[in-house]
Amino acid sequence: MYDNGFGIGRVVRSNKGRDKNKIFLVVDEIDEDYVLICDGSLRKTDNPKKKKIKHISKLNIISEELKYRVVHKKKINNAFIRRELERLGVRTRN
Questions:
Q1: Residue 88: CB partners within 8 Å, gap ≥ 6?
Q2: Going by CATH, does the domain composed of 10-87 fall within 3.40.50.740?
Q3: Rounded to two decimals, what is the model's pTM?
């Protein structure tokens, strides 16, 4: 675990790239500079986006359920990610 504030379960907004202004959940920390993010539709759980932390901004929302599932190695699928973003109030249904 790295002390950069971008822990697993953190809701983030992309500031750079094709996915600019889109909302994602951090699903893994690679090192102090990179995290893996997904949103369940544009970026699926089987192919998360590797993103530099300087290209994303933190929102003050953390998914405790996602953190729990990752720590306990429970199933995480795309529907869960989409539902979690909706539940946290940062995504509307498309």
A1: 11, 61, 63
A2: no
A3: 0.89
